[in-house]
Specification:
Elements lengths: L1 H21 L8 H22 L7 H10 L2 E16 L2 E12 L5 E8 L13 E6 L7 E3 L47 H20 L3 H10 L12 H15 L3 E2 L1 E4 L4 E6 L7 E7 L2 E7 L11 E2 L8 H11 L10 E5 L11 E8 L4 E7 L6 E2 L1
Antiparallel strand pairs: 1-2, 1-4, 2-3, 4-5, 6-11, 7-8, 7-12, 8-9, 9-10, 12-13, 13-14, 14-15
Keywords: Membrane, Transmembrane, Transmembrane helix
Length: about 375
């Protein structure tokens, strides 16, 4: 479970990184502290679990059942090694044992336990101590000093590699003799399955967290073949995505003013079709935001126009044509403004025009054209 939680934490960090990379500025920051807390906390707990995993005392019911069934034997301590870990200022040690059961063949095993400093003499190599064999046919054991008569302590054959090494299976024992096992096997054979499961958990977590940034991710994937990390919003696809988002947010397709830049589109749209009160909407990296009422409100509702009245796909080709007329290789950091022109009565209710400028660090020429993409001319 701890490993799954750690992978969930990594999923948070992955989603936060992707969001910061492809989403709007400031997006994804919330996933970093959550991911770090999960990863750090579970890593600490896993480290503690690895150190103390084999230290749990056997349930008294198992010990008594083993003694009643006569599953006892004698364990000789062959080696004592400190792990460097201390719990309550007492060392955690690894004991290499050779065990001679009361019935059956001898075997070697390994036991990790807290050995109090005052009990070190009883754990020195060569010491023989009675043990209870907790499960039939398994190497799980518990020291039972004082619970069997001294005469039951047997001779133990010399330590030898000819004696088989048998290690307990992973997982602490319950009172009924069953083991508490992890959700996914920790055996060597199960490593590929664990790696696959943990990777899927991380990717699933990241995928769920990235759902709000789906548009930004899709735009990045579409822009990568062009060598870009983000979609150029001056392209027809970029403009279409922004205007569709504004239409869904505002509930209609009427606009007052549209400013199109490489990574940002700003749209002034009426609160409702035909109304004068106008809100400002911004679209960046797949994210639409209503920033509030515009600073300058229109005088009359006739300033608005339908977004479908503009041939948006002609904007970038017109900028390229203007750049060629100026002897430039490309339009550079050009931006477009689309709004109505002044009418004879002095109101901004004239025809819809597209305005932009093209130039270099020395000169700049302003251009204007009709909403249908015709009539490109220097202003």
């Amino acid at each position: 479970m701890l490993r799954l939680l750690r992978m969930i934490g990594l999923g948070f960090l992955l989603a936060a990184g992707v969001t910061a990379l492809v989403g709007p500025p400031g997006a994804g920051w919330w996933g970093v502290p959550i991911g770090l807390i999960l990863v750090i906390l579970t890593s600490v707990l896993l480290s503690i679990a690895r150190t103390t995993g084999g230290l749990a005392a056997a349930p008294p019911e198992l010990v008594q059942a083993a003694l009643a069934a006569g599953r006892t034997g004698t364990a000789r301590i062959d080696a004592l090694r400190q792990t460097g870990t201390r719990i309550n200022d007492q060392p955690v040690c690894v004991l290499d044992l050779t065990v001679q059961p009361r019935h059956g063949a001898a075997f070697r095993t390994r036991l990790q336990d807290i050995v109090p400093l005052t009990d070190m003499p009883a754990h020195q190599p060569g010491i023989r101590r009675p043990v209870a064999l907790l499960l039939e046919g398994e190497p799980d054991l518990q020291f039972v000093d004082g619970q069997v008569p001294p005469a039951a302590v047997q001779d133990v054959p010399p330590a030898s590699e000819a004696i088989p090494l048998r290690l307990p299976q992973p997982g602490p024992l319950r009172a009924d003799g069953t083991r508490m096992r992890p959700l996914i096997s920790t055996s060597r054979r199960g490593r590929p399955l664990r790696a696959l499961a943990f990777t899927l958990v991380m990717l699933l977590t990241a995928g769920l967290l990235l759902l709000p940034q789906r548009a930004a991710v899709e735009q990045t994937l579409a822009a990568l073949p062009e060598g870009r990390l983000h979609l150029d919003l001056r392209s027809p696809d970029g403009i279409d995505a922004a205007l569709r988002a504004v239409q869904e947010g505002a509930g209609h397709d009427r606009v007052m003013d549209v400013v199109i830049m490489e990574d940002l589109i700003v749209v002034d749209a009426p609160v409702a079709a035909g109304e004068v009160n106008t809100d400002e909407w911004t679209y960046r990296r797949g994210h639409l935001e209503r920033t509030g009422p515009t600073l300058i409100q229109p005088d009359v509702a006739q300033e608005q126009f339908a977004a479908g009245d503009v041939a948006w796909e002609t904007l970038w080709p017109a900028a390229q044509q203007a750049a060629a007329e100026q002897g430039l290789e490309d339009p550079g950091d050009v931006s477009f403004t689309v709004s109505r022109d002044l009418a004879e009565d002095g109101e901004w209710t004239g025809p819809v025009l597209v305005r932009f400028s093209v130039g270099d660090e020395y000169t700049e020429t302003f251009y204007v054209m009709e909403a249908d993409g015709t009539g490109l001319r220097a202003a």
